[in-house]
Specification:
Pfam families: ABC_tran. This protein has 303 residues and is an alpha/beta fold. Helices cover 35% and strands 30% of the residues. Bound molecules: adenosine-5'-triphosphate.
């Protein structure tokens, strides 16, 4: 069963269409990464899932329930980390978590939750004195209260140092292993690539891609990227590369020519042969397509 089912969802603010006819579903127990550039509509979608914003049209179901009619139930069963999490400056980190435990009628150990995100040392300090990253860590601990069936994390990596980011990653995996569904938005592509079972990429409120990172790579037919360092890019080189059947894309940046081609030894050899024949080629790097490439391809190239 789907934990989240979004059908033809649209949200307009005056002339701005923040989300446009969006449909997607997230399976129970899945780690789902929601990607998109600034202003793509990620937060607006999340806000509609939790009934903080009303859709212009379309519907969202969470745990099979209508997000608007059953919002209280849904929020009770979910752990939320949303933009603009309100901090009470006079309360300590532990008191924030204790308050959430009380509100949710849960029986967690606040110290254990704070330890999971590396907050033990500062648990007794007032949140007013916390750094941005400490506030974010505290908000993550609060989201975990009550072992929620669904974690909705809007940009959870914001402000976290590499250690915090690693803890977050481990934590997301552990929560999914326990059976929780995790839906998180992020700009940190490596974070998403490391943990997400599937991702969706949003651009101008529209879904431009959905699937596993591997699926998206295959869709793009960009198994391998070869970067050619040349001394002066010539039309002969570009034409030669573009006529190869195994080449899907050729991009130029200064003296580097980036070639996306089939992931076969023969394809790589043919690309390097063309480059060698131009006489100005002096080095190359081969790398597998990463999520960064997929993201750029689905967003920048289509704008
Ligand atoms: N309350 C609002 N009133 C008017 N426009 C809004 C409102 N909320 C969002 N928008 C607009 O809707 C679009 C989508 O915004 P949203 O915050 O959902 O994007 P996002 O993908 O979360 O961006 P970011 O990564 O920058 O947080 C933007 O053009 C934004 O300006």
């Amino acid at each position: 069963m789907s934990a989240i089912k979004i059908n033809n969802l649209t949200k307009r603010y005056g002339d701005v269409t923040a989300v446009s006819n969006l449909s997607l579903s997230v399976g129970s127990g899945e780690i789902f990464g929601f990607l998109g550039p600034n202003g793509a509509g990620k937060s607006t979608t999340i806000n509609m899932m939790l009934d903080f914003t009303t859709p212009t049209s379309g519907s969202v179901h969470v745990f099979g329930h209508d997000a608007h009619r059953r919002s209280t139930d849904i929020r009770r069963r979910a752990g939320l980390l949303l933009e603009g999490y309100g901090v009470y400056p006079r309360l300590t980190g532990r008191e924030h978590v204790e308050h959430a435990i009380e509100t949710k009628n849960a029986d967690d150990d606040p110290d254990e939750l704070l330890a999971r995100i590396g907050m033990t040392d500062v648990a007794d300090r007032r949140a007013g004195s916390y750094s941005k990253g400490m506030c974010q860590r505290m908000a993550i601990a609060v989201a975990l209260v009550g072992s929620p069936e669904l974690l909705v994390l809007d940009e959870p990596s914001t402000g976290l140092d590499p250690n915090g980011a690693r803890r977050l990653r481990d934590l997301v995996i552990a929560e999914a292993e326990r059976g929780a569904t995790v839906f998180f938005s992020s700009h940190i592509l490596e974070q998403v690539e490391a943990v997400a079972d599937r991702i969706a990429i949003l651009l101008d409120g529209k879904l431009t891609a959905t699937g596993s990172v591997a699926d998206l790579r295959t869709n793009l037919e960009r198994g391998t990227t070869i970067e050619l360092d040349v001394m002066g890019v010539t039309d002969g080189l570009l034409d030669g590369l573009r006529t190869l059947g195994c080449v899907h894309d050729v991009a130029v940046h200064n003296d580097t020519v980036t070639v996306a081609c089939d992931n076969t030894g023969e394809a790589k050899l043919r690309v390097l042969n063309v480059a060698a024949n131009t006489g100005t080629f002096h080095d190359f790097t081969v790398r597998e397509t990463g999520l960064g490439d997929v993201f750029s391809r689905y967003t920048e190239d289509r704008q």
